[in-house]
Amino acid sequence: MDEGTRSNLTEACVDAHLAAGRADRPALRYAGRTISYGELADLVNGTAGMLRELGLAAEDRVALVLNDGPEFVATFLGAVRIGAVPVTFSTGLMPADVRFQLDNCGAKAVVASAEHRPKVDEAVSGLAARPRLVVAGGASSAAWRSYDEILRSAERVTKSAPTLEDDWCFWQYSSGTTGRPKAVVHTQRGAAYPREGHGRHVVGIGPDDRTFSVSKLFFSYGLGNSLLIPLQAGASVILEPGRPTPNVVFDLIARERPTLVYAVPTAYAAALAYEEEQSAADLSSVRMCVSAGEALPSPLFERWRSRFGLEILDGIGSTEIGYIAISNMPGHVRAGASGRVLPGYEARVVDAQGEPVAPGEVGDLWVRGGSTAAYYWRDGARTKRTFMGDWIVTGDKYVVDADGYFTHAGRSDDMLKVGGIWVSPLEVEACLIEHPAVLEVGVVGRADRDALVKPCAFVVLKDGRAPSDELAAELQTFVRTRLAPYKYPRWIEFRPELPKTSTGKIQRYRLRAAG
Length: 515
Ligand code: 3UK
Prior knowledge:
Layout (H helix, E strand, L loop, with lengths): L8 H11 L6 E5 L2 E4 H17 L7 E5 L4 H12 L3 E4 L6 H11 L3 E5 L3 H9 L6 E5 L7 E3 H7 L14 E7 L7 E6 H14 L8 E4 L6 H14 L2 E4 L6 H11 L3 E4 L1 H14 L9 E4 L6 H11 L3 E6 L6 E4 L12 E2 L3 E6 L12 E7 L5 E2 L3 H7 E2 L2 E10 L5 E6 L4 E3 L2 E3 L1 H8 L5 E10 L5 E9 L7 H14 L8 E4 L13 H7 L1
Parallel strand pairs: 1-11, 3-4, 3-5, 4-8, 5-6, 6-7, 10-11, 10-12, 12-13, 13-14, 26-27
Antiparallel strand pairs: 1-2, 8-9, 9-19, 14-15, 15-16, 17-18, 18-21, 20-21, 21-22, 23-24, 25-26
This protein binds 5'-O-[(S)-[(2-aminobenzoyl)oxy](hydroxy)phosphoryl]adenosine.
């Protein structure tokens, strides 16, 4: 029986470069240090040995609750080396969300940065099956073993597990309007593809490139930017573990001199706002800037180009697509549009029956191509709604023009992209309704001064409670301390009542119009 073609991402990211005599080339830049491809191979192989020692075998899941750094890359590729499956967790999750995801993916081990240890402790306390715990950059304790300690004596696994193209490579969580996040299952075949698609055709990446992504490795965008694409290309990757505030980003760019910069629109806007006061930025090393995660408003594109002489190449991707499938190309940017379909992908804009709409008409965007995921783990119902044969139903409304340029026209659900990260308005509403002063609430997206969407809450107070700036601030703090902070409403609008349908449902489109 033909079982399929062998494929293992770790071979493409590490072994191929050693075989080509590039062991001394830089792979990672971190905290002022260079880690060569040869050193990365040792780190990956040792981490593979560590995971084996902890009892992991092929198809077992290991959760990564890690900041950007060598341990993230090594744990990811070390797991893939032995055929185990890295599952990336957002470092901004609350303990209850960490618990849900650990339970849902059945993680046998967790590798966490020291900073995230308390959150993981709280998360695992409620779990029936306790995963093995490893702390990166911290000391051993009763529950935790130190990554550095195990690594020192761990076996070096130099031979990859015999994984096939259709085997699991990695999983990532994606959230929706309602219901729990679902694990998006990526195969070895799909994981290899972003380097061929965007890597080759948009940025033309090569071994002399140095990438820096403001978006972190745990996002599917960041994973492509800082791992899948540059390491397969033999380029080097600049990693920053901390919060990427504009001063950190500009310092890092001036010092580390990346050639390719990746960020979300909100980060470009924050950088411009900061730079207007500082004006000392040195972007002379950068040959291209890439944007994804949410639409890049054309004024932002223009301001960036006039300030730095660089085009920002906007492109749309998703966790399910596996990376960017539609993108602007250097020298052919249409500001305000997501660009054209990349080689290796197909896209169509369809009506409710799945039939293509005419150019210029709004429809639902479907995408297929080399990097798409296989399905949602243990979620047949949502898999069937999103994976239509080999097409992905993105949930986005799009218009395509006669030249093949795609322009974003909103979502078909109520989900918001805030700084490139999903926010469910229902989750923010469910949080605010818990506040003793709140009778009713509706949350919608509203454009800020950079035309980027942020949550706005319309609130009806209970009898006896009066609107005030203090109460608005209290409601914002209420959300910030209960949900991941980026979800808090940037505006609170008090109203005597909310617009409703005859059946009593809040009419969000009217709130959006009021916003
Ligand atoms: C929205 C965009 C307009 C769109 C992602 C690049 O964002 C990524 O993945 P997610 O799963 O979200 C996917 C959704 O985000 N979106 C993304 N990019 C754009 N909307 N213009 C854009 N340029 O709603 C999409 O369905 O978090 C981005 C690479 C890999 C990714 N996973």
